């Protein structure tokens, strides 16, 4: 057993950023008690642990839940900080698809993915929902890497068949399903308690109806989470309307395909109309808010308060490489700035507080990736998934978040 005594900072769900002096006991992976620090002697008797089990935090240190990145493209890290001069659809075609295509060479995956996972962990991201590429072999490398390095991860082989380069797409719906199912089996065979597969139709523009339906069924058969992009930019929404005119909206389309479940992570959701918002809330699908990305590729300002007022689950995503920073701390800062812009357009009630940003980065993210019953805050029975922050350490996350390139 280990007992940490000192400052804990977490979201309780009701209190978005609670700071307390506490004693937190961990046995194996699990939190077995969280009590006021003043009760340490009582706890020693009750749980029968020796003084040598106690870890006293210094006055410059605190424990907080590990950061959750609910939307990030591991395969786009080579482009971080580059190519932010075009809006989404042009950006995908000119820069992003060619970079992702290079993962057909397994050596690229073996070179890039370990550095991605290391960089995420250095930034305090203990949980991430990753998009890889369409390549089965390379996506296996990402899953195995996260498992080996001890990062909690959802890993998705990207599914896409149309409106993308001929040399960078799956060959058919059959191949897409076969390889996705093989990836699901492979991930399970790793026997890692931390890494799970996630079904990943890229977005409606690249996925024909029969593929989306089949992937919805596959996710339901294997009880998998699902991730995609939704209502990110106005041009994207127009194109979806043209491709799928018989559906009342982009969100209704995903719903009809079986993709809008309580295990779904929908990135962006900048431009949802009221009916779409209602549907998303009803289905309990989560939203990954990616403010850095939304600014860089000119997608728009997402009104996060509007989502929260409708009881939609919201977490933060770095969305590298449309977002230029792999740090969730950066995502918190951008989320606050974007909410100030939204506040100027609407009222100050639409502005997020720093405590709300902290909640989105931890428990909010855990809810979006459907792991809130095991991580996200310090509650008895949950796993001890935490980071130790020392504000006086020369290499604290406050300093390193923009360091190092891949
Ligand atoms: N929509 C479809 N693919 C992508 C992607 O790779 N990044 C972002 N930001 N949006 C997308
Ligand atoms: Fe994305």
TrEMBL record:
Cofactor descriptive note: Binds 1 zinc ion per subunit.
Domain Amidohydrolase-related: 62-393
Top class in the EC scheme: hydrolase
Record-linked Gene3D superfamilies: Metal-dependent hydrolases (3.20.20.140), Urease, subunit C, domain 1 (2.30.40.10)
GO cellular component, one term: cytosol
Catalysis: reaction(s): guanine + H2O + H(+) = xanthine + NH4(+)
Gene Ontology BP term (one): guanine catabolic process
Cofactor entry: Zn(2+)
EC numbers for this chain: 3.5.4.3
Involved pathway(s): Purine metabolism; guanine degradation; xanthine from guanine: step 1/1
GO MF terms, alphabetically ordered: guanine deaminase activity; zinc ion binding
Sorted UniProt keywords: Hydrolase, Metal-binding, Zinc
Matching InterPro entries: Amidohydro-rel (IPR006680), Guanine_deaminase (IPR014311), Metal-dep_hydrolase_composite (IPR011059), Metal_Hydrolase (IPR032466), Metallo-dep_hydrolases (IPR051607)
Function: Catalyzes the hydrolytic deamination of guanine, producing xanthine and ammonia.
Family according to the record: Belongs to the metallo-dependent hydrolases superfamily. ATZ/TRZ family.
Protein name: Guanine deaminase
Taxonomic lineage of the native organism: Eukaryota, Metazoa, Ecdysozoa, Arthropoda, Crustacea
């Amino acid at each position: 057993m280990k007992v940490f005594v000192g400052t804990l900072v977490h979201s309780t769900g009701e209190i978005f950023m609670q700071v307390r002096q506490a004693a937190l006991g961990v046995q194996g992976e699990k939190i077995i008690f969280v009590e006021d620090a003043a009760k340490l002697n009582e706890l020693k008797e009750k749980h029968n642990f020796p003084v040598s089990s106690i870890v006293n935090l210094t006055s410059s240190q605190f424990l907080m839940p590990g950061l959750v990145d609910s939307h990030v493209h591991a395969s786009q890290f080579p482009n971080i900080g580059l190519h932010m001069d075009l809006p989404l659809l042009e950006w995908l075609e000119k820069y992003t698809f060619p970079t992702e295509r290079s993962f057909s060479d397994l050596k690229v995956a073996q070179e890039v993915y370990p550095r991605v996972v290391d960089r995420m962990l250095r930034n305090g991201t203990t949980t991430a929902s990753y998009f890889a590429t369409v390549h089965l072999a390379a996506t296996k490398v990402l899953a195995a890497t996260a498992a080996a390095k001890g990062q909690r991860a959802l890993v998705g082989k990207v599914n896409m068949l149309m409106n993308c380069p001929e040399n960078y797409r799956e060959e058919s719906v059959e191949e897409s399903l076969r390889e996705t199912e093989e990836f699901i089996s492979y991930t399970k065979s790793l026997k890692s308690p931390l890494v799970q597969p996630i079904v990943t139709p890229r977005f409606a523009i690249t996925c024909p109806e029969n593929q989306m339906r089949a992937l919805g069924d596959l996710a339901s058969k294997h009880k998998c989470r699902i991730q995609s992009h939704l209502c990110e930019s106005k041009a994207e929404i127009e194109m979806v309307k043209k491709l799928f005119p018989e559906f009342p909206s982009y969100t209704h389309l995903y719903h009809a395909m079986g993709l809008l479940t309580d295990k779904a992570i929908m990135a962006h959701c900048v431009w949802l109309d009221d009916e779409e918002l209602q549907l998303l809330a009803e289905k309990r699908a989560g939203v990954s808010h990616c403010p850095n990305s939304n600014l860089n590729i000119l997608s728009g300002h997402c009104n996060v308060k509007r989502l929260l007022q409708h009881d939609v689950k919201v977490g933060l995503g770095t969305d590298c490489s449309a977002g230029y920073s792999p740090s969730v701390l950066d995502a918190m800062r951008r989320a606050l700035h974007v909410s100030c812009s939204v506040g100027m357009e609407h009222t100050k009630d639409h502005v997020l507080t720093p405590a709300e940003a902290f909640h989105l980065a931890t428990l909010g993210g855990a809810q979006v990736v459907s792991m809130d019953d095991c991580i996200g805050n310090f509650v008895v029975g949950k796993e001890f998934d935490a980071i130790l922050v020392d504000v006086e350490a020369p290499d604290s996350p406050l300093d390193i978040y923009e360091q190092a390139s891949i």
